[in-house]
Amino acid sequence: MLSEKEKLETLTHLGIELNQTHDLDILMERILTKARHFVNADAGSIYIRDGDQLHFNYTQNETLQQRLNKGEKLIYSTFSIPVDEKSLAGYVAQTAESLNIPDVYKLGPSKPYHFSKKFDEASRYQTKSILTLPLKNLRGEVLGILQIINAQDENGAVVPFSDTDEKMMNPFASIAAVALERAQMSRSILLRMIRMAEMRDPKETGAHVNRVGGYAVELYERWAIQRGKSSREIDKNRDILRMAAMLHDVGKVAITDLILKKPGRFNDDEYKTMKRHTVLGAQLFQDCNSEFDEAAMQIALNHHEWWNGNGYPGHIELLSEKPVPEYMTENGQAGGKKGEQTPLFGRIVALADVYDALSSVRIYKEAWDESKVLSTIEQGAGTQLDTELVEIFFSSLDMMRSIQERYQDAKPAA
User: Fold this and answer.
1) Which structural domain range is residue 104 located in?
2) Are 245 and 292 in contact (CB under 8 A)?
3) Residue stretches of the chain with pLDDT short of 70
4) pLDDT digits (tens, 9 = 90+) for 135-190
C-alpha cells in the first residue's frame, strides 16, 4: 500500500507519465492500473461518455485474473448505460460529483441509484466497496467515469475506501481527465484521416482500423512476452503500434476512385496502381521525427509483404520507387522481402489485416464463416504469414473475437 507521501509523489509525476501515452485504449488501461494501485483496489472500470450514454470501455479485476491460466486475459463484454440517476456511474456522470459507497449491497431504499448484481452473479465475484469519480475536463464537462472497486487493507481484506482515498483520488481523476481528453483528440485526428480514406474506399472504416489496431497490439504483446522483452519496452511499443496500425492503408487517398471503388477484380494495370498505396502511405511519414512516424512508415510500406517473398512492394527505394539493386530480380523487378526482412510491425499488421478482411463484408464479398477464415490463416502460415505470429494468433483467439465484437461496423441505414 502507498503511504500518503508516496501518493503525493505519484500525483506530482502522474500528469507527465500519462501524457507519455498517446493511444486512447492504452491510456485507459494505464489510468485504471495507476488508480487501482493508488488506493490498493482489487478491480475497476472506465466508462466513456458519448452524449447521454456511458460506454463501458475498460475493466480490470485482479481476483478474476488470478483464476485464469498464465498468459490469459479477461474477456469482457461492451455495453452502454444512460446518464441518469438509476446507476452509480450514471448518477456520477449526471451530478459530476463522486460517490464513495462502503457496501453496495447495503444501499438504502431512499437512494435514487442502485447496484446491479448481474456481474457478481455471473462471475462469482463479490463487489463491496466502490469509489466512483467523474473524469472532468478543465471546462467542467464529464468525459467519463472512473470506478474503483474493493479497497483492500494490508492483509488483502476488502474494506471501505477512506475519506483520504476519496480526497486524493479527486486530483488523480482531474489529471487523468486531461490526459484522456488529449488522447481522445489524437484518436479523433486519426479517425478524420481515416475518414478521408473512407470517402475514397468504403472498406477503410473507423471500425476496421480500430479492429486492426486492437489485433496488432494483442499479437505484439504476446510475441514480446515470449521473447522476454521488458514491460517498459512493451508498453511503449503497444502505444506506438496501436496508432500506427490504424494508418496502414492511408496511402489509398492517392488512388483513383475508378480503381478503389471497382466492384470486380482488377486487371494487371489496375492492380499495379493499387499496390502503390503501400509506397504512397509510407512516403507520408518519410521525414521521420518520432518513433511513431517510423512505425507508421514501416507498417504502411510492409503490410502486404509475404513471408515467402511473394508480396509487395518488395525491396524498393522509397523516394524513387525503384528496385534496390542488390535485391533486383532478373527481369528488373523489386525482389520481395522474405521472412524477417519484413519488419515485425509490418508482419503483425499483415496478419491482423488479413484476419479482418476475411471476417468482414466487402463490396465484392460477404464475410466468411469463422471456420473458413481460420483455415485460410492456418494454411497461410509460412507462405503469406509469419508462422510464429500465426501460432500466437490462435493462442489469443478469444481476445481477437472480443476485439471484433467491440468494434463492429455500423449498420446500413434502413
Assistant:
1) 4-183
2) no
3) 197-205, 363-365, 410-414
4) 999 899 999 999 999 999 999 999 999 999 999 999 999 999 999 999 999 888 88
- Do 77 and 205 belong to one domain? no
Q: Is the CB of residue 297 less than 8 Å from the CB of residue 288?
A: yes
Quick check: 385 and 377 in contact, CB under 8 A?
A: yes
Give the domain CATH number at 115.
3.30.450.40
Q: 344-359 and 397-406 helices cross at what angle (nearest 10)? A: 60
64: cell is 478474476
Q: Are 217 and 57 in contact (CB under 8 A)?
A: no
3-class secondary structure, 80: strand
Q: How far apart are CA 148 and CA 403, in angstroms?
A: 23
> In this predicted structure, what is the pLDDT of residue 413?
47
Q: 125: burial class by Cβ within 10 Å (0-12, 13-18, 19+)?
A: middle
CA 188/CA 388 separation, integer angstroms: 33
- Cα 4 to its chain centre, rounded Å, is 33
The secondary structure of 394-413, three-state, reads HHCHHHHHHHHHHCCCCCCC
